From TrEMBL:
Protein name as annotated: Aconitate hydratase
Pfam families attached to this UniProt entry: Aconitase, Aconitase_C
CDD domains in alphabetical order: AcnA_Bact (cd01585)
Coiled coil (UniProt feature): none
Signal peptide residues on this chain, from the entry's feature table: none
InterPro entries: Acnase/IPM_dHydase_lsu_aba_1/3 (IPR015931), Acoase/IPM_deHydtase_lsu_aba (IPR001030), Aconitase/3IPM_dehydase_swvl (IPR015928), Aconitase/IPM_isomerase (IPR050926), Aconitase_4Fe-4S_BS (IPR018136), Aconitase_4Fe-4S_dom (IPR036008), Aconitase_put (IPR006250), AconitaseA/IPMdHydase_ssu_swvl (IPR000573)
Species this protein is from: Clostridium weizhouense
Assigned keywords, A-Z: Iron, Iron-sulfur, Lyase, Metal-binding
Keyword rRNA processing in record: no
NCBIfam families linked: acon_putative, PRK00402.1, PRK07229.1
Amino acid sequence: MRDNLVYKILKNHIVEGELKTGEPIALKIDKTLTQDSTGTMAYLQLEAMGIDRVKTKKSVAFIDHNMLQQGFENADDHKFIQTVASKYGVYFSKPGNGICHQIFLERFATPGDTLIGSDSHTPTAGGVCMLAMGAGGLDVALAMGGGAYNINTPKVIKINLIGKLNKMVSAKDIILEVLRVLTVKGGVGKVFEYGGEGVKTLSVPERATITNMGAELGATTSIFPSDERTLEFLKAQQREEDWIELKPDEDAFYDEEITINLSELTPLTAKPHSPDNVAKVSEVDDIKVDQVFIGSCTNSSYEDLMKVAKILKGNKVHPNVSLVIGPGSRQVMEMIARNGALADIISSGARILENSCGPCIGMGQAPGTNGISLRTVNRNFYGRSGTLSGQIYIVSPETAAVSAIKGILSDPREMEVDIKIDMPDKFLIDDSMILEPATMNQEVEVVRGPNIKPFPIGKELSNEINGKVLIKLEDNITTDHIMPSNSKLLPFRSNIPYLSEFCFNTVDTEFPKRAKEYGGGFIVAGENYGQGSSREHAALAPLYLGIRAVIAKSFARIHKANLINNGILPLEFKTIEDYDNIDLTDDLKIENIQKSLDEGIVNIKNLTKGYEFKVLVELTKKEIEVIKVGGRLNYVKLNI
Ligand code: MIC
Ligand code: SF4
C-alpha cells in the first residue's frame, strides 16, 4: 500500500506497536513546547522525574497566556519557568515575544518532525508539515525526558481542496466549513491530511489557521504537505535549511476523503456557544456588535493583520464597537509597526493589546452583559470569554474588521477593498527574546514563589469503589466547564487546592462542596466529555476533590489521557438507557475492579435504585497498568 503523508512520519517515529487503525503505538518525539498556564505543572512533573536535562532535539517554554500580573503570582510563575527551563536545557520565550503557536511556526517548526505541546492548539505546526499534537503537561514532561508519546493509530482522512478562495473569503472559512460538516466530535481518532490542487493556493500562515482549529474537531492533529509554499515561508524566516519536501505517495491510502471546493465557500461564522454551530454570515440576521477581537493563535499572523490594516485604513471603528487587536508575535507587531500598517490600525480607533492570548482565554476584555463579541479565535465555549451571558461569534479577520466598521455582523464581500498580501521575502528576524538554556554544568537556582503548591498524585486503585454521582452532565462538556480559566483563576494554575474550589463553576457552583461533603465519588457525562483544552487541571482538580471515575458516553482524546495519567478511571456507557437511568447523588458501587479492568468490562451497582449495569473499559493494557498504580508518574517511578 502506498503511504499517505501521516504514515510516512509515523513510520519514521514509531518505537512501539503496530500501525493498524485503533492500535496503540508509541512515537519518538523530536520537539516539545509548553506555555505558562500548563507549563508550571509540566516542569514540576519534569523535576519529579529526576532527570538531568531534556533529551529532545529542541524544547521551548513560552509565556503567553498569563500576562496580566495583577499580583505576584504571574510574575513568580514566569520566573519559575524561566529558571527551571534554563536548568533543564529548555529554550525560554520571554513574555511579550508572542503566542507559543505563532512563534513556534515562525522560528522552530520543521517539516517531517514530531512535536507535542502542553496546549491543544499545538497542531498549528502542521501548517509546515510537522506531526504536531496537543498533550497533557505530564506527557510533555515525559517526552522532554526522552520518553515516547502514546496514541492510538489514527484513521487518516484526506481533505481534498479544489478551486481557489474568492476575495474576502479566508482560510478561517475553510476550517469553519470542515467543522460544519464534521462537528466538534467528528475528528476523534483521526488525523486530517490536506491535499489536492487547492493546497498550493494557501500560504503557510493560512494553512496554520486550518491546522490550528482542527483541534476543535477533536482530531489527533491536522497536517499539510511540505512544498514550495513551505519553502517560501521558511526562506523568508531565514530557515531554508530546515526545509525538506514531504508529500504523500501517488495513490496513497486514506480511510476517508472529503472534498471542499474553495471557489464555492462564502464567509462563515460559528455562533454561540460551539465552534461547529456554523452559518453563512450572509444568512445570519443583522446583529449589532458590541466588541470585536482580532487575534489569538488562529488569526494573528503578519498576513492576517496586514489584511485587517488594509480594511481599516481610512475608516473608523463604529461608535458602538470596541475593537481590540492582539498581534501573534513580536515579529508581527514590529513588522506592522515599521511598515506603517499599525498606524492605520491605531488611526481607525482600534485598541492594541500586547502579543499574547489575551481575551481568547478570558484574560481581560470580557464582554458586557449579554454583549455580542465577534472574535477570530478558535473557541466560543460557554463562559470562556469571562462573561456568562456573553455571545461569542467566531469569524475570519476580514469579517471581523468589516463588521467593526459597520457596527453589525457583516459579510466582508460588501466592502470594496483590495486586501491581497504578498508573503514578505524576508520576515524581520530578532530572536533576542528567546533565551538559550544554561550549559550542562552551569549552576542554576530554580526560583519558586509561594503560589506554587505541591500537586496531588493519584493513589493505587483499590479493588472496590463506592461513591455518589456528584454531577450529571450533557454532551460536549468542555474543559472550560470542568476547570474554568479567566483572569481571576489563571494565576492559580500551580495551586490545585485553590483552583478546585471553582471546579465546574460555570455549570454547577455546588460541585466542590458536594464532592467534599460526600468524600469524593463519580462524574457522569455524555458524549465527547472533556473536549477543548489540554489543561491537566481538568483532571487534577477532580482528583483533588476525590473523583475516582468518570462514566461518560465518550471522551475527548487529550482529556482521557489526562484522566489516565492522573489515575482517574474513564469508563464508557454501553447504552443510552444506562446514562438516562442514573441521577445525581445515586450511590454507585464497583467491586472486583482489578479483574474487571483486565476483562474490559466493569459491573456497576446502582445501590440507590437497586439495579446493575455494565460499562466498557476502552483502555490499552499499559493504560490499565497506569491506572492501577495511581497514574503515570507512579508508573514511571516503578518502571525505572
Ligand atoms: C485554550 O485555548 O483553551 C488554552 C488555554 O490554550 C488551553 C491550555 C490551558 O488551558 O492552559 C489549551 O488549548 O490546551
Ligand atoms: Fe492562547 Fe487562545 Fe491559542 Fe489557547 S487558543 S493558545 S488561549 S490564543
